[in-house]
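dumping the sequnces here before i forget
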Amino acid sequence: MNFTLKIWRQKNVTAKGEMVSYDVSGISADSSFFEMLDTLNQKLIMTGGDPVAFDHDCREGICGTCSLYINGRPHGPAKGVTTCQLHMRAFKDGDTIFIEPWRAKAFPIIRDLIVDRSALDKIIQAGGYVSVNTGGVPDANTIPVPKEKSDSAFDAATCIGCGACVAACSNAAAMLFIGAKVSHLALLPQGRVEAATRVQKMVACMDEQGFGNCSNTYACEFDCPKGISVANIARMNREFLGAKLFSEKERVIKESL
Amino acid sequence: MLLYSSITKKVLMALAGLFLVTFLCVHLGINLMLLKNDGGRAFSEAAAFMGTNPVIKSAEIVLFAGFLLHIAFGLVVSFQNRSARPAAYARSNSSETSFFSKYMFHTGIIVLIFLALHFCDFYFIKIGLVAPPPGIAGHDFYSRTLLLFSTPLYSLFYIVSFIFLGIHLNHAIQSAFQTLGWNHSKYTDAVKLIGSVYSVFIAIGFSIVPIYVLFFLNKV
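..and the predicted 3d for all of it:
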């Protein structure tokens, strides 16, 4: 198969980037999107050009490292997969394919198609710890968890933190990501201990990072490679409002006592 | 106001919006009294009641606060959202989303322009800020309405504004519930359906009066 690629090239954070056109030919329909880019890079290296920088790691759809915005969709046209699981058979021979980095103020472009997603890590860090008992190995099922809650918590926990929700959102909001992270701990009894402080700190950190606000367009859910539901955003809103309105006040003990 | 968190801003906007949605129903009820063929007596009585009843007068203050809150937060949130993506994509987003949800700011602005004109046409005349047109008393909403709607261009503008309001509400109602955290497999589909039906009901309901005045009143 032959393709015309329009790829965003940018030397570094401060440089001005532009879309550059490349032609690739003789691509197998069964090769992955990254193998196609590897072919292009090999060609660029052989001809003394500068290979295209893009993020990738496990190439099996579980690490959340890959981040390409392909033809107006994060992770491309196939539903429920990351870019590394996208194959060239999803395109037609002779197609022009636009490849861009995630675009958000909170995700500065490091080089070409690689963006800095440490804003998401900062939100996770802001969430803090979960209290667990140390000591001997506890017996299984000592903490009862309703089946439905354990299922929903697991669904939320499948978030790989790739940032496709931010890339898809017309407001570059990270609400689906944080909604999933808040939900997966808030649904379980182990996560309830710090739930009220966790949600407030994570939302405050999200605002600091410069993400947009949610306008419920649900593009995030549609483009999430793990199919995370926007019900998690509503749950986070409930957790947040509950924490703001009803959580216990922290008591400060005066030093003079 | 800028210091409120993203979720707090959206929640306040949603609450104000839902309050405005209920107000629309009351307003529509009074408008439809124009259809009663009694020379505007029922309509004028209802308008006079709304203008003089102390409970309604107090609620009016809350209503204006609701409008200001919804508009102010709407502008703040929209500008923040735009600045969250300074560089646009070369290929704009082709994700499958509800089409109208992307145009809440635009439809909101159209409704805001309509609201400003609506205030000039009615409310400012009532409180004496703007002089009423010759031959019509400041509190005579009936004659004022008939005069305005006898101009086809004004009626058209009025109907188009309400179509945009309907589009706004179509996303707004279910969106408000989601923002308030009311999302559940048991009732979210019903909320979406009721929101869509209500938005159509409002758009058609408000359009009935200008259509009636233009085509049916004093024509038969």
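The interface with chain A takes residues 5-11, 77, 80-98, 101-102, 104, 171, 174-175, 178-185, 188 of chain B (CB under 8 Å).
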